[in-house]
Amino acid sequence: MTSRFFRSARSRILGWSVLLLGAALAASTLATHVLLVRGMNSQVNAELSHEIYEFRALAQQRASGRPPRVSVLALLKARTSQAVLEQDIVLAGMLNGKLVATSSTASSRSIAENPGLLARWAAVRKPTTGTAELGRGQARYTAIPVRVPADRSRGVFVAAVLTSPQQAGISRTTRLQLEAGVVALLLGSALAWLAAGRVLRPVRETTNLARKITDSDLSARIPSRGHSEVGELAVTFNRMLDRLEAAFAAQRMFLADVGHELRTPITVIQGNLDTMQAASCDDAETLAGYRLRSGTGCSTASPACNRVAVAAPAWGCRSSRLSRPRMAARPGWRNAAAAGPRSASPFRLSPCLGPPRAPARTAAGPDRPHVSRP
After folding, report:
1. Architecture in CATH for domain 2-171
2. What's the start-to-end Cα distance of the chain, in Å?
3. How far apart are CA 43 and CA 37, in angstroms?
4. For 64-163, where are the alpha helices, taking DSSP H only?
5. What pTM value is reported for the model?
6. Are 137 and 87 in contact (CB under 8 A)?
């Protein structure tokens, strides 16, 4: 039963529908996730570029003053002390390998607790980008070296953007999309099952009708709905039933006509065989064989066959078994055709069956010879 369910057309339609819907759901979810991550990366890169641009603009402004009042430490503190509206942005300044300035955000306090990260930033000699773990999660940063001609100190300016909140939002959006997609997949599967059943209903009706059709009843027809392929199948099947019904009707009419036309001559022949009388032993065997072949047979219920069987010994037959008729008559019987019209046929109709009777005895004389029974 289970294998039959999976082999049915309705199950295959449902399986393909679920497969296509699942593939579409997976593709849409993946595409949405990729687009959200790409948008997050673009936004983070834009924020980092903006912070670096602001720092370089401040350094250029300080260097162009009269008199120029610029130093590495002053630049780092001036930029990190400015108000940062976004809470996910962290600014930090390092001078000679030490953390000397940070922004006022909550995540900035966790930088001093990560010596490995500070060492990595202190070794920066060219603009570098990367990721780091801060107090509130993962962050992406950009570090640039800071050098002032009048100051021999080596500084590093770091701008970092926390990506954990945005990644959590992307994950939450993807999960919600998957949950909604699974619900939609279940609903779509149910609708696909109902739609497949509705589409295949004429096929099931055709199958059930074909099982009920017999040669005696071909009147049932499939109701055709619409002009679709299934509707054309129902119309074609109904036309085939019309042709079959016409063919069976013609066959029954032909058999009835043949039976009616053959019934009268067969009855006449059978009656002649039943009333026919044999005139000799060979003729009796031949007649009995004809009766056997005609279907009546020599049995105790057939009076004519009984008369043949009883009369056979009277003719001097060596055996009363009349199952193999002999078609040839005795030579003496062939010459009897010249005696007159009655002896021209080996059989004659009579109300009773028995051996040929001898002529009556008369007085012998020269003009009437004595005739005895052979």
Report:
1. 2-Layer Sandwich (3.30)
2. 86
3. 10
4. 72-81, 115-122
5. 0.56
6. no
